[in-house]
Amino acid sequence: MFLSDAFWGFFFISQICIGFLGNSLLFMLYMYTLLTQSRLKKPIDLIFIHLTLVNVLTIMFKLIPDAASSFGVRHFLDDVGCKATLYTYRVTRGLSICTTSLLSVFQAIIISPSNSTWMRLKSEISTCIFPSFLFFWIINMLIYIHIIKTVEANRNASFVGSGYLQVYCQTNQLEHHRSMAFITGIIIRDLLFLVLMMLSSIYMVSLLYKHRQRAQHVHSPSLSSQTSPEIKATHNILLLLSCFVFFYSSNNFIALYSFYRPEKIPRLERITGILSSGYPTVCPFVLMKNNKITFRFTSFISKMRPIFSRKMVSR
């Protein structure tokens, strides 16, 4: 094992730990609110819970094999393991773009003014969350069903041609029409949800701009400096969408280049692993920024700390 391989391995492990802990903490906070704090729970919390679960699965099924290969573990996955691991990773990564798009559309409808055409959807959109989740799972499982047929354990280190190659897994040589059908399905899905994400983002930015323009006409500094929780949440979601676009577009560009490159570069595959797991790793920390649930949790911990310290001193 080379020193550079060990560096990649420790980097993957640190990314796994950070992403897993962040998403797990956020998941527990939302579940705690959902089960015990009924006055604080909102329908959008269900989207956050689903997103954190998808993030954890994406990180685990992508980075654990990469970390194992960096530390020189051989024959970590057989044919069945490759099919299951790669299929689950691709499905959860597809669910990430679908859930993030749903989050942006949901937030755009929430902050829409009372006189807008979206107002009538506010009372109905919460009933569409679970059907949307079911649709997302079905469509992504169908898109990537070909992975079960084409992926096998990597037995040929000198794999040449268009296709997927990892240390443990590779695709069989794909027929041109099947390869084009697979790529077309992914492009249609990505374009659909990216357009929805873009339109809802533009709508939210325009609403925030109008809100700022109205705030400038308020002469009282205390009133003009006040920001509603909905506006803060919208800022966080827009920041989250920016992170998603950066990581998703960068990863897709490198992945397509590697897919069609005749000679595969192992270091390039590791970079795609970092980029594909970058958004799931960063996501929980962006969502915890200016989050009311997080503030309540940290304030609870800060209040309990002196109590525990007094008990320790008394002992």
Overall description:
By secondary structure, this protein is mostly helical. Helix content is 74%, strand content 2%. It is built from 11 helices and 2 strands. It has a two-stranded antiparallel ribbon. Helix 2 (44-70) runs antiparallel to helix 10 (278-287) and helix 6 runs antiparallel to helix 8. The protein is globular, with a radius of gyration of 22 Å. The model has no long low-confidence stretch (mean pLDDT 79).
Notable traits:
315 residues; mainly alpha; two-stranded antiparallel ribbon; 2 strands; 2% strand
Put the structure in a nutshell.
The protein is mainly α and 315 residues long. Helices cover 74% and strands 2% of the residues.
Strand and helix layout:
Layout: H1 3-36, H2 44-70, H3 79-110, H4 129-143, H5 146-150, E1 151-153, E2 169-171, H6 176-216, H7 221-224, H8 229-260, H9 266-276, H10 278-287, H11 292-314
Antiparallel strand pairs: 1-2
Q: What shape does the CA trace take?
A: globular
Trace the largest sheet across and list its strands. 1-2
What is the subunit arrangement here?
Answer: single chain
What is the tally of beta strands?
A: 2
Strand content: under 5%
Count of helical regions: 11
The class by helix and strand makeup works out as: mainly alpha
**How much helical structure, as a percent, in the residues?**
over 70%
Which radius of gyration do the C-alpha atoms yield?
22 Å
Q: What is the H/E string? A: HHHHHEEHHHHHH
Mean pLDDT: 79
The largest pleated sheet is described as: 2 strands, antiparallel
**In angstroms, what separates the terminal alpha carbons?**
51 Å
